[in-house]
């Protein structure tokens, strides 16, 4: 069994192995459908939204120095790390400035978020509000690192602080959209994030995925709870 590739102790491997036994066995037809939906859906959206993505790329390039696409290591299915993609919404020194802002964290658990993060560029604020910075993750979906629907992929430093319950989030493929993103987004506490993700994992189905995808559209257009 594969486990946490960045964890040499092996503790996380054992934890995920135990937790996976609690999760209901997935219907083979559902698994095949989910992957087909990911391939067809992400491929279609990449083509359909290409003009939008090109416009965003130009705006990011012209308004702040640095690459258009931000690449970051995230933790996916069963602890495997992968290169997570998004349009850059922060200044280039964002990681270096993180320690200065830790005391202002507005989230519980291992998550760091503040509403008026000074590291976010003016264009980045708009992109984040409407989740446009997430569009490159359609490439992650096409690659198989992510799904259109599933728990959001955490950072390795966040996973290091997980308890056994939180580890359940790593027992399925992470996604672009999920229950807590259509039920409050960043306004939801980490505890509620985990509970909603656990509910999704226990009840994964075609209809639940479809419902989440349909609810994602008005949630994104509304723009509330995102920062």
Overview of the structural elements:
47% of the residues lie in helices and 9% in strands. By secondary structure, it is mostly helical. The chain has a two-stranded antiparallel ribbon with strand order 1-2. It has a two-stranded parallel sheet with strand order 3-4. A hairpin with a 5-residue loop joins strand 1 and strand 2 (81-87).
Secondary-structure class = mainly alpha
Low-confidence runs: 1-11
Q: Globular, elongated, flat, extended or rod-shaped: what is the shape?
A: globular
Tally of alpha and pi helices: 10
- Give the ordered list of helices and strands: HHHEEHHHEHHEHH
Rg value: 17 Å
Major sheet, described briefly? 2 strands, antiparallel
| Major sheet: arrangement of strands | 1-2
Question: Helix content range of the residues, please?
Answer: 40-55%
Percent strand equals 5-15%
Topology, number of strands: 4
Secondary structure: elements and pairs:
Blueprint: H1 11-20, H2 28-48, H3 50-63, E1 69-75, E2 81-87, H4 94-101, H5 122-129, H6 137-143, E3 147-149, H7 156-159, H8 164-167, E4 175-177, H9 190-203, H10 206-222
Parallel strand pairs: 3-4
Antiparallel strand pairs: 1-2
Helix pairs in contact: 2-6, 3-5
Write a compact overview of the structure shown.
By secondary structure, the protein is mostly helical. It is built from ten helices and four strands. It has helices at residues 11-20, 28-48, 50-63, 94-101, 122-129, 137-143, 156-159, 164-167, 190-203, 206-222; strands spanning 69-75, 81-87, 147-149, 175-177.
